Amino acid sequence: MQEKRKNRLSRRKFIQGVGAGLAGSSVLLHSLEALGAEQTGRVQPAGKVPLTLRVNGKDYRLKVEPRTTLVQVLRNQLQLTGTKISCNRGECGACTVLLDGRAVYSCQMLALDAAGHDVTTIEGLLAGERLHPVQEAFVEHDGMQCGFCTPGQIMAARALLLKNPHPTPEEVREGLAGNLCRCGAYPNIVRSVLAAAEKLSRKKAS
Fold first, then answer.
1. Alpha helices by DSSP H, the chain
2. 197 and 108 in a common domain
3. HEC string for 88-134
4. Are 11 and 107 part of one and the same domain?
5. Are residues 122 and 183 in the same domain?
6. pLDDT grade, residue 206 (50/70/90)?
7. Residues 97 and 142 in one domain
8. What is the C-alpha to C-alpha distance for residues 192 and 200, in angstroms, rounded to an integer?
9. What are residue 36's phi and psi, to 5 degrees?
10. Does residue 42 come out as left (phi exceeding 0), alpha (psi in the -120 to 50 range) or beta?
11. Which of 45, 65, 95, 150 suits 125 as a labelling partner, its CA being 20 to 30 A distant?
12. Count of CB atoms within 10 A of residue 206's CB?
């Protein structure tokens, strides 16, 4: 009977044992992480770091956490809310902005990686109160319904027309394939981009 009591594991001892095991595992895990960071030279920065970001032709000096995405900085710190967050996983294109004239998903790019580049948002296409020809074409040809995806569509269209000023309808569809419209306004979007190409061509010729 005494032998059975000696071998019996009490609830208190069990909890104490588990706690010690977890504590030991935690120490081991942190030790391995520290060793790995030391060997690879990748030490995770803590807190916020300084960042100079050039957006729509203006330099902004900010402090951001290294994990902060470009779209978060644009919307939350610079109040440029024309850039939308929708899927937040690089699948819908609502957050599209231009980086040195190239369309990028700002939800998938760290703000720190945009340093040293020119970022253009939908607000940056305006000339004072005047709409950009691409924006005008979207209005004139009903290239939007709910309008939520429209800033990303316009920025993708702008990037396409910078690269290919005279696209075919097929090239427009291919160029905007990364931008989803949940309202299904694709025919009007294509017409809008083709009309914008004509507007820009006439403006360049005049």
1. 2-7, 11-40, 70-72, 133-140, 150-163, 169-175, 186-205
2. yes
3. CCCCCCCCEEEECCEEEEHHHCEHHHHCCCEEECHHHHCECCECCHH
4. no
5. yes
6. confident
7. yes
8. 12
9. -65, -40
10. beta
11. 65
12. 5
Pair 82, 23 in one domain: no
Number of C-beta neighbours around residue 171 at 10 A: 15
Report residue 120: phi and psi, to 5°: -125, 125
The larger pLDDT score, comparing residue 44 to residue 153, is at: 153
Q: Is the pLDDT confidence value at 97 over 60?
A: yes
Angstrom distance (rounded) from CA 136 to CA 120: 18
Of 166, 88, 80, the closest CA to residue 124 belongs to: 80
- pLDDT tens-place string over residues 162-202: 999 999 999 999 999 999 999 999 999 999 999 999 999 99
- Pairwise CA distance, residues 8 & 12, whole Å: 12
Q: How far is CA 49 from CA 78, 109, 112, 191, in A?
A: 16, 16, 9, 44
Q: How many CA atoms lie within 13 A of 37 on its CB side?
A: 10
Chain centroid to CA 193: 23
Instruction: Tell whether 90 and 179 lie within a shared domain.
Output: yes
What is the mean pLDDT of the segment spanning 62-78? 98
Check which CATH number belongs to the domain holding 190 and give it. 3.10.20.30
At residue 13, the pLDDT reads 53
Which residue range is the domain that position 116 belongs to?
49-205
